[in-house]
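Friendly challenge for the regulars: who can give me the structure tokens for this chain first? No prize, just bragging rights.
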Amino acid sequence: MKKVLVALVLLLAGTAHAYEYKLQFAPPPGARGINVVGYAFTDAGGVSGLVHYAITRCSSGRGAHCITTQYDYSATWDLFGNPTGSVAGAPTAPAPLYVDGTLTVYADNGTNKTGSDSTIAGADKGFVITPSSHYTWQSPNGQLQVIPDAPYTFSASLLSDGDFNLNVAQATVSAAPSGFLAGVPDQGAISITSDGCGASVSPGASCAYVVTYDPTTIQCTPSTQGLIYTTVTLTLATDAGQSFDFTQIYTVTGVPVCDD
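First reply, four minutes later:
Bragging rights claimed.
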């Protein structure tokens, strides 16, 4: 009996943090009345459902009038909400299985759920909830900072907050120009100086990457104020359903000014 209870606890722990993914849809320009909802799970292991939108087109000139066209598609997604296909025509809408708070659930196979969630940002509310590996950056992301023309080090910490080990195949960093000085090709040297995450991060564990950005290799800048604008991006290749870059945006001061 004790072994059965332990196994049940482990099973529940493995599905307790199943993550919600938005059913992705990129509406065309001018689309209105957007409705995206998951209706069922497919034999291929994905989600099927509805994509609906309308576009109003108006003629110009005297006596102009507008015509609104409705578009309906039977669409499919993988279990992480990534679109996998669509065909014209609305699918048959099933009755909801149940409503759970903000979730209207149309399909629940005991492991995954799909339907619509009123709390999802934007007009397209479709979702799929599935157990997966997942991570969240704990360090402030997208920060804008002013730094001198000298090596600068920062730490990017993440939390493995999914159901399974977060497996990291590769971590890379890059420095790219930004702002109106984007024509300066050399953005300095960038490297990961410490990888505290390794190849796998257990659920509930935190780890950090230490990155060093060295702008001193930039020979000169056309800015008369000695400025360079650089975006540093840390990218992870993982088995998580969705991956999110960690970025820092720098204004580098004191860079030598180019001779005319």
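The CA atoms of residues 104 and 243 lie 26 Å apart. Residues 1-16 have pLDDT under 50 and may be disordered. Your move, everyone else.
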